[in-house]
Every structure is written in structure tokens, then in C-alpha cells.
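[job 4471] stage=fold_predict status=RUNNING
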Amino acid sequence: MGAEAAALLMDRMYRHQRHVYDASRKYYLLGRDHLIARLQPAPGATVLEIGSGTGRNLIAAARRYPHARFHGLDVSSAMLATARRNVARAGLSSRIRLVEADATTFDPAVCCGAARFDRVFISYSLSMIPAWRDVVDGVPRLLAPGGALHVVDFGDQARLPRWLRQGLRRWLALFDVTPCDDLPALLRAVAARSNLSVSVEPLYRGYARYAVMHSS
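[job 4471] inference complete, writing C-alpha cells
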């Protein structure tokens, strides 16, 4: 799927949902604040969120880390319109830069004015990106020395009842969301190729997973 087609799909899906997105997603996008609490960027650090949606995570992170600089990219112009309003309402427009771009093809220097970042994070976006493996493959080029990628997304639900696991997956499919079951294996392969370290932690009985990939 090309960038234009992906943008149209996301705009169609979230043209109306974006207005109630944050109120509804807090009940099942579990682990987002777990990730934000562990970002720990140093003062002056640059932080990028891939798939920034309504700006909810960026606003929370910018409030928690007032001395870092934040960038967010999303392929959906509808979501970005909502995010810009939310960021402005929070009084954070000077610290959060939002850009419309495809996560699989964007040039960080052009989009964000920075070639590398001290922290990159992806919260429940990989499972919505058809070419999510390309996004993960491209992460090493985005990390500054000592930088880290933080990811939270749906897990394998291995410790949940079978009926719940199957029902969840059928429901997610209605929104074109497909859990990235082989994410841990891909992260480890990418880390090995690039001399990075990686850790993967299941959350909430496997409902979600939290992963971190560090550069040296």
C-alpha cells in the first residue's frame, strides 16, 4: 500500500472517530503510560513518536519531560488536525512539532529538522501499518548514539482465555488492526544486524507487549 492510499484509509477510518478516540481508547490501549514513564530523555533530548494520532502521548510526554523536544508524525491529515488543536490547547505548540508523513518512507531531516533522535517511540501504531516490518527495519538509522526505541502494542494474549483472545482479534480486524505476532523476533534480528540490544516484556497477561531497543 502506497503512502497516498494509506493516508486515505486512515482519514476515512478516523474522520469521525478522532473526536472520541482518546475517551474510548484508554480502556484498551493499555501500557501507553508505562512506556512514557520509561522514556526518560535527558534535558535537551529529541524525541520522535511514529504514528502520533491525536497527540495524546506527545502531550503527556512533553508535560512529564519539560526539557526535551518532541516531534510527531502521522499519515492521517484528519488525525493531525485534531492533534494540532490538542497540542495548542495544552500550550505546547512551541515544544511539539507535528508533521504529515508515511512512517515507511519519511526523511527525518526534511520532516523534523533532525536526522537522529535520542528516543523514538511507537504506541499501538505498528499493528495498523501494513508495512510495519519496514518501519522496524528503519529504526537503527533514526537512533542517535545512546538512543533507544520504545514500543508498546498488542501482544500474543497467550495467558488470556481463548474465547477472549479470539474475540479481541476479530474486533480489532474491524478497524484494520492486526497484532504483530512476530515483532519480538524481528526486533531481535534488527538489533543483531545493527549491534543493538533489545528487551521484550509482556504486559497484562500478554494482552500487550513492551519492547525497548538500545543503541550503544
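[job 4471] summary: The two ends are 34 Å apart (CA to CA).
[job 4471] exit 0
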